[in-house]
Amino acid sequence: MHTKLVLDEEDIPKAWYNIQADLPFNLPPVLHPGTKQPVGPDDLAPLFPMELIRQEVSKERYIEIPEPVREVYRLWRPTPLYRAHRLERALQTPAKIFYKYEGVSPAGSHKPNTAVAQAFYNRQAGTKRITTETGAGQWGSALAFAGKLFDIEVKVYMVRVSYEQKPYRRALMETWGAQVVPSPSNDTNAGRAVLAADPDSPGSLGIAISEAVEDAVTSKTPTKYALGSVLNHVLMHQTVIGLEAKRQLEMAGVYPDILVGAIGGGSNFAGFTYPFIGDKLTGRAPNLRVVAIEPTAAPSLTRGVYAYDFGDTSMMTPLLKMYTLGHSFVPAPIHAGGLRYHGMASSVCELYRAGVIEARAVPQLATFEAGLLFARTEGIVPAPEAAHAIRGAVDEAIRCREEGVSRTIVFNLCGHGHFDMTAYERYLRGELQDYNLPEEEIQRALAELPQV
Amino acid sequence: MHTKLVLDEEDIPKAWYNIQADLPFNLPPVLHPGTKQPVGPDDLAPLFPMELIRQEVSKERYIEIPEPVREVYRLWRPTPLYRAHRLERALQTPAKIFYKYEGVSPAGSHKPNTAVAQAFYNRQAGTKRITTETGAGQWGSALAFAGKLFDIEVKVYMVRVSYEQKPYRRALMETWGAQVVPSPSNDTNAGRAVLAADPDSPGSLGIAISEAVEDAVTSKTPTKYALGSVLNHVLMHQTVIGLEAKRQLEMAGVYPDILVGAIGGGSNFAGFTYPFIGDKLTGRAPNLRVVAIEPTAAPSLTRGVYAYDFGDTSMMTPLLKMYTLGHSFVPAPIHAGGLRYHGMASSVCELYRAGVIEARAVPQLATFEAGLLFARTEGIVPAPEAAHAIRGAVDEAIRCREEGVSRTIVFNLCGHGHFDMTAYERYLRGELQDYNLPEEEIQRALAELPQV
After folding, report:
1. What ipTM does this complex have?
2. Model confidence over B288-302: pLDDT tens digits?
3. Which fold has domain B4-8+66-108+233-446?
4. pTM for the full model?
5. Quick check: A99 contacting B, CB < 8 Å?
């Protein structure tokens, strides 16, 4: 039995899978924050190249991956899929556990799958410069990497507290040639206004988004803005993960009973699961269970409400219909920074509403326990975000043991933890904690939902 | 044309290549530091399991890789070999540049190739516990990883200044379950003696070796000691790199004109080049050039003398005949910590003496310049050690351009730089420097060579 299943470069998918072709419903329209009317391509044109806007609403089942994008994918794709023999033995489970590993990308996570595509389409559209925001830095570093390869300047507004606490991620972006400024900055009106009110502001993702968007629409250089999750085209670019995983599992002669993915804004989860969910939606995999694992600190699916809300905290973005904790909700400072998001991608929400996928929230300590077990059995130190998926898979495997049933469990290990060792150090010293999220706190944020 | 050449798991080598079978000379005997007589197996038995001692002196051409070792290798082997198309274009060179990438291992470098083998043979011999020393932490983390998979306790004596400055590497070792103590420690007589004289001692690799060795020979638990470079068996375990690279280049239909490797103690360089040097020694590749790149801060081959010297700075180890800067030589604090070694593996020295291989020393800034160019073209951020090989390959490629000749240049990218981002940050800020190494400083250290 193989430990890992490797595909040839030829097997890098030639097209992304667009789940909108197979959804049994239409996605709710995205609304303009001022008019509350559905946004059209023209509203988005200042921010994104037209091809990405087209992909955002396309219902074609497959959208061809341009050859220059596949050429860059070849640096790390196809990514390996592993059978977790050692983890299975440690758990004494009859389950078969497989994991797809996206940490082999130069940026160490799945984020480059879309960063490269976005950089390519921007380059094609004549964009010379892209702005974006980043919190922990995974998205910012993926875009810095992609921008450099397509000769596009990248400016990253990095939440100030992360800028100061995560100098290594910052240095990684700079090594790839990106300009990184702490947000709030003096480079935008939005930033200056915040600094005027509070010179010591630690910043937030919401402020950083405002700065990146303002920069993009006001710059004299042809500049666009890029987002690392939530939007349909971003999720679609990530489906290379699931498409490859399907082939690899075919090679292993199995089809999953249960898929598990960590979820924040939705791109990692969707990229891994949508090609399989396509099977489920079209009757080819009626019994497949798909489980999204979110942190109890940001439980959008399990404790949020289904409503129109802003994508950012500073109420600049269009309104999205989604499970949300309220745009003013501030998740506790868990180390899985990539999962600290108040909302959720639209298609994920609709699939959850329709009962196609399940969701579970897990507390921080349980994810680090699972991450450590994984590191000590399989050898790869997972990112805290990825440890959420491990927790979910381990729990399913334990259930298999208890029920005496063998099931095939597959999860996506979306990134390595090399830039998160402080978190492991703190966990090993007993300094991490779980966060109890009082219902009142959620209700307080939900009271600020926009009226639609 | 493929960007990367991937082998199947079946193609992980089934045997290591032992260059001692093909050397046209015998390696000089290793001498006991007290008697100055050649050491025998019994002298080494308290430190190493007998199978490793046997491998150390074996002249069999191929030594079978045990299946449990290959089973662990499968986690990341075979490693990819890339054609550096983007780097070639940036250099406008007619040269074909390829690189083998060892950074895909869970520890991020080539070190696990031998750590896993050593852990296996120790396990087989009943060893319950292994001690070792580490400076920057690459070797310590590789052994921590390997020990965990073979259920052997690992204790790492980590040079105190690194212990304090590199908490992420320390956390990585602890995540894999190793015990890590700053050296000098209170756990050994050697450590206590140093601390009594200087409670604030920053430690050194020499002191850490003394502590690890003392711990191994005095422990009540069956404990051995492990070394991450220099010894013959360590170099041999690394030949999986070169054996795979040969097959991959065959797939690409080329044979190298020039091989380039970074060199510190010799294991990375030897592991990559020896399977090709075997061809050269046996007449099958008479024109192959093999270039070792060392830092100007520790130029053992290019400025050292050929003499018997201690392997460590505290004069505990047997005496090795090698190119040495003197065991008391302290290299400048360059960021390529893995190359800061005063001596060199015996077989590398003999090949250099015999004119089979060449050596060049490069200054720190030039290596970071090459490393940054590589990150910005090929996308992978290299470890500072690996950047030495890149510098060497880039210089050869520039020569090809100047001479208007196409040559096939292959180098080994021995690890990624995720744990070295401080160094890149400092380079980008202009805070790094080259070090001028005065001849007097080398002469001062050489004056302390042991009399043999």
Report:
1. 0.94
2. 999 999 999 999 999
3. Rossmann fold (3.40.50)
4. 0.95
5. no
According to DSSP, the β-strands at A258-262 and A289-295 are parallel
CA B282 to chain A, closest CA, distance in angstroms equals: 34
Residue from B1, B2, B3, B367 whose CB has the most chain A CBs within 10 Å, to mutate: B3
pLDDT tens for A291-306 read 999 999 999 999 999 9
Residue-range domain boundaries for chain B = 4-8+66-108+233-446
Is the pLDDT at B257 greater than 70? The verdict is yes
Q: Token match 């000691």: residue?
A: B225
* Residue B99 touches chain A, beta carbons under 8 Å: no
Which strands sit side by side in the sheet containing A179-183, from one edge to the other?
A179-183, A153-159, A129-134, A223-225
Residue numbers in B near A171 (CB within 8 A): 421-422, 424-425, 428
Mean of the per-residue pLDDT values of chain B:
95
Q: In this complex, do A422 and B171 lie within 8 Å of one another by their Cβ atoms?
A: yes
Give the per-residue pLDDT at B1. Answer: 54
Give which of A128, A135, A145, A150 is closest to A49, Cα–Cα. Answer: A128
Q: Is B3 on the interface with A (CB under 8 A)?
A: yes
Contact (Cβ atoms closer than 8 angstroms) between residue A96 and residue A83? yes
Whose tokens are 């360059």? That residue is B334
pLDDT digits (tens, 9 = 90+) for B16-38: 999 999 999 999 999 999 999 99
Whether residues B75 and A378 touch (CB distance < 8 A) is answered with: yes
pLDDT of A1 higher than 70: no
Hey, are the CB atoms on B428 and A86 less than 8 Å from each other? no
Torsion of Cα atoms, B304 then B305 then B309 then B314, to 10°:
-30
pLDDT digits (tens, 9 = 90+) for B149-196: 999 999 999 999 889 888 899 999 999 999 999 999 999 999 999 999
Measured in angstroms, the CA of B171 and the nearest CA of chain A are apart by 5
pLDDT tops 90 at residue A96: yes
A11 touches chain B (CB under 8 A): no
B6 touches chain A (CB under 8 A): yes
Query: CA-to-CA distance for B123 and B226, rounded, in angstroms?
Result: 13
For chain B, counts of helices (H) and of strands (E)? 19, 15
Stretch A6-33: mean pLDDT = 95
CA separation for the pair A126, A122 (Å, rounded): 6
Phi-psi region of B404 (alpha: psi -120 to 50; beta: other; left: phi over 0): left
- State residue B136's pLDDT score: 83
In this prediction, residue B253 has a pLDDT band, given cuts at 50, 70 and 90, of very high
List B residues 167-196 in contact with A (Cβ-Cβ < 8 A).
167-172, 174-177
Q: B158 — phi, psi (to 5°)?
A: -105, 125
Q: Give me the helices (H) in B125-260, please.
A: 138-149, 160-165, 167-175, 189-197, 205-218, 232-237, 239-251
Contacts of B148 in chain A (CB under 8 A): 376, 379
Q: Verify whether the Cβ–Cβ distance B168 to A108 is below 8 Å.
A: no
Q: Is B373 on the interface with A (CB under 8 A)?
A: no
Instruction: Please give the Cα distance from B327 to B307 (Å, whole number).
Output: 11
Query: What does chain A come to in residues?
Result: 452
* Interchain proximity A428–B174, CB inside 8 Å: yes
Nearest CB neighbour to A3, from listed B75, B375, B379: B75
Give strand pairing partners of A100: A81, A412
Q: Distance between CA atoms of A406 and B117, rounded to whole angstroms?
A: 33
Q: Which two tokens stand for residue A201?
A: 């502001």
